[in-house]
Amino acid sequence: MTLTPDAMGRALPRIEGGQKVAGTARYAFEHPVVGPLYLHPVQSTIARGRVTAIDTSTAEALDGVVAVLTHENAPRLADTSDAEFAVLQDDTVAFRGQYVAAVLAERSETAREAAELVEVTYDQQDHHVELDEDSPDLYAPDVVNPSFETDETVGDPEAALESAPVTVRQTYTTAMTHNNPMEPHTTVATWDAEDGRLTLFESTQGVSAVRTAVAGVLGLETGSVDVISPHVGGGFGSKGTPHANTVLAALAARAVPGRPVKYALTRQQMFDLVGYRTPTIQHVTLGAEADGRLTAIVHDVVEQTARFKEFAEQTAVYSRSMYATQNRRTSHRLVPLDVGVPSWMRAPGEAPGSFAAEVAMDELAVATGIDPVELRIRNEPAVSPASGLPFSSRHLVDCLRRGADRFAWRLRDPRPRARLVDGWWIGTGVAASSYPTNSMPGSSAVIRFHVDPSLDPALGAAGRYEVEIAAADIGTGARTVLTQIAADALGVRPETVHVAIGDTALPPATTAGGSSGTASWGATIADAADRFRDKWGDDPSDGAQADGSMPDNPYSGRYAMSAYGAHFAEVAVHADTGEVRVPRMLGVFAAGRILNPDTARSQLLGGMTMGLSMALHEESVLDPRSGHVINHDLANYHVTAHADVGVMEAEWIDEEDPYVNPMGCKGIGEIGIVGAAAAIANAAHHATGVRMRSVPMTLDDFVV
Amino acid sequence: MKPFTYARPDDAAGAVDLVAGDPDAAFLAGGTNLVDHLKLGIASPTTLVDVTSLTSDRIDDLPPAHGDTDGGLRIGAAVRNSDLAAHGRVRAEYPVLAEALLQGASGQLRNMATTGGNLLQRTRCAYFGDRTTPCNKREPGSGCSAIGGWARYHAILGATHEPAGQACVATHPSDMAVAMAVLDAQVQVLGPDGERTIPLEEFHRLPGDDPTRDTVLRHGELITAVDLPAAPIATSSTYRKVRDRASYAFALVSVAAAMEVVDGPDGPVVADVRIALGGVAHTPWRATRAEDALRGGPATDEAFRAAAAAETAGARPIESAVGGNAFKVPLVAGTLAAALRTLAHDPSTDPTEEPG
Fold it and tell me: Is residue B229 domain-resident?
């Protein structure tokens, strides 16, 4: 089934835009509840050891304190197999910042003051928090996120490198970084003891996943947990899977039946408890003929995980499918540390992996004297290097050529450190980008029709279509785009469609992650619409209804499906001070049908800005003595500010792909960040002659 | 966050009495720093005395001093940073101050922050702001975590490295104060014993053996105004701030400079110069060694860098695996050269000048 586009492809204004501008769109913490208690946690001040005593008496004596939960008195959880969720269950401290107690009080200020008064005594053990690739604890995980092979070898890469006329052999590193959505992780949890129901107003990328996880941990029926999340102030992956904060709020609610428990993480807590991107050490070796054709790619990655729970970022996977070569090796090794567990952060794997891979390609361009755009074109594969399958569509070369044209690339003097303008060294750089076109099984949707005589006759419908699916709009525009998809699937005007999302009262849906949301939920709605029209035709009666579910894609396993792109960047480095500026960025993408040019552009520009941030700014500074991130606020942890963004443009080529899903769309939430940092690093090299193999790059890398 | 009493007396003298009589009371002005510290537990006053409406929020002309033709300015302590930056005479006669203000914080913060409060900002040292780490400024004798830790924003000049129980390598975060340091500003203070005037250069103090004290103010003393004397040299002045992103970040190194250049037989000569550095010390750092090295000499890049080298000859950078600050020594040279070069030419055509 392929949908005929009418509403799809139009710049339908964001449906909840007015509410957000007016401040009436309710985020998790803002849902009115009666008689709430406020939670403030006590966090461990050691990185490894045991709690030997907790004195809560002073805190409990404070006026307004209702309860202080510790591992000694907190309700027991039914399932602690996921160690991240085993909150307040025993005396073990596995990382600094771990929850060791929680105060519930009538006022948030009181809760915070009381938390300071809880006295915790520890038996402290030596901790290890620094990523060291020579660690004796280094190990190979069974798979890397989500289920890729850890290692992969094709052909004989060592022999190919041995005989390669040109080789590039370098080490690249990327920093530990933390997702920092504007809205911190937030829960309002209420336990109704009589009915045995738990209600969570939650800031999440997937209400269904939260429901399943929390129900399992607390030992409740899935249907006894309601999760409501109509609006989310960003997530970037950190709200893609529930973390300990949600369990803590739910646990606390069970301790005070009938009273809503409100818990919003402080910005500092965002650096302790809800995931982050692992730092990476990446060894990349490229072998090539003199004409630049790759004969071997080796990409070996070392990164960290938590000792108490594994997360393995799929950093080298990018190199498995990007360029043609007969010989390839990729591998991942983890160092378990006494730290919080890493997790998803926008384009896990692809973002750090593409940095190393695409800077290495630039180094190969310099080594062979071949233009970096041309070098990539010469290594364009005919079929997927990873699977051997044909591509459902792949227009990387078109993106590179169009971007080069738009960036006046043919006028570029390839020599580094050749342009000094008004005290700034100026250079340009390019990098490719790709992101897999994922879709997740498991969503369902319902469509209902209601006759509405008040409807404008010009809309050509007798009533309204209610589309229900527990999807998430984390600021992406999903609600709007799903409305467009539903309209085309039903063959009606989008004004007659209302899409309800973000609530477990609706049919379950997969999480907004892996850039899979629109593809998965859209295909599900298309299925429901198909059944609706089969059942009711195009003139339904009042109350007409049909259910649908995520269909299998008949082309899955027959085609390799990914989106592609090309980043171009101009970088200026101040000759006296080393300050780095990026006056211009251009991203050209091929991502199937673009369903809404306005929301799509926001996604792509947002990804590119995050890539700029990765290139120049973001770095979580972990103090090895204490084991925690010391720059844990937005004054010290720098995210790119408006003034850092110069002229930034995202555009796309019209790509038709009949194989990916009924909409012909590919995910666009993450591809904007992939390769962006490499383009900037490559431009910085062109500007200054200084090769940046580590991000973020800062002015001290250039000042002499 | 501990409960506190909020007081709003009728006049400045009443506010001074309230705070002077209670060792745990504090003045509250714009609150852009103190309110953060209340949340973080860095400050826990029992009484907050709101002074925002008790001191002047005007910028007044001062009469000419004896022998001068022009008078300076009196800036009320309650003047907001944004209003001060926008003032016509400040922009025309003290551009270094307007530029410094506009490169500080964000528009929203500048609308709240006051002149008096800006001078009393506390260091943004991450360890000072984190009660779970040792810090001699917050907890005397506990040690200095920045030494051997994340010291990217920390001092290279005038810091205390030993003994461990007194060490402090924090920097003063204000941009405004660095500009005022080259303007020979005078801080007007009202205390329980009456009024006094403190030259800005003496207002902030090095950590010495007591890093808990940032300034020479005594408890209960309230800043009422800052006077800027007439300074013809300041019409040729600039503020150059170097930081880790293009706005909304504290200085790694900043330079406030005013310079008068005259033609000499072998090219332009520095007739007079005033320089202060930010981001390098516990105080705005008046760079008198650099000034002395430049005065009467050629206005060349080489001389500018040599002057910076003279100023940083005694620098003591911090080595650290998680972010040392040795780069600040060459960065001072580069930043000073960039700033003075714009003053040796026409500053209005400076291509490197950026908005905050």
Answer: no
